[in-house]
Amino acid sequence: EVQLAQSGAEVKEPGESLRISCKASGYKFTKYWINWVRQMPGKGLEWIGRIDPSDSYTNYRPSFQGHVTISADKSISTVHLQWSSLRPSDTAMYYCARFPVKFTHNTTSHWGQGTLVTVSS
Amino acid sequence: DIQMTQSPSTLSASVGDSVTITCRASQNIVSWLAWYQQKPGKAPNLLIYQASSLESGVPSRFSGTGSGTEFTLTISGLQPDDFATYYCQQYNTSPITFGQGTRLEIK
Known about the structure:
heterodimer, A: 121 residues, seven-stranded mixed sheet, four-stranded antiparallel sheet, globular, B: 107 residues
């Protein structure tokens, strides 16, 4: 069974750094891209970016580029999302997910349970 | 970026009704569109991929149509479990983008 297990909720102050994680199991980790999605309180879904775990190639939505970093550790089948300096506007639920991919047999989607990040002084 | 516009934003309906949600893309996305259902406090769940293909395990009352820039999700014979928020997502071009969501409420 495919599972994406995310790390627990975090409460941080503005300016602090943070790394949250997403551990994959039940499939070959390097075969599928992993995406990160933000959902601010009461709002919709925003794609942050994605990583190819086979070679750690990443691409980001421009509005997130430079503010977050996505990385992968193949040795533990885990993808990370990190910030070097959090802002109150980073308060949100963050999901890791696999999405369907065009022109492939990868037609399904799997999501982590979400990690709630709260940034407040 | 490709803008995805859903309508309506909110929809009120009764159990047994049939409803349709529309999603328009600002550019041609061929058929690379997915529909998700999200319930409060839960991660989204895939319903439809490639515009019209039903995900395994999803009830057949859900159906999707469309190609190019206009797409629809229809739920035929609403069940109590269907009252949730629905999102379309294009995966034709990076950055991947979602519609703003349609909240389906009980009338």
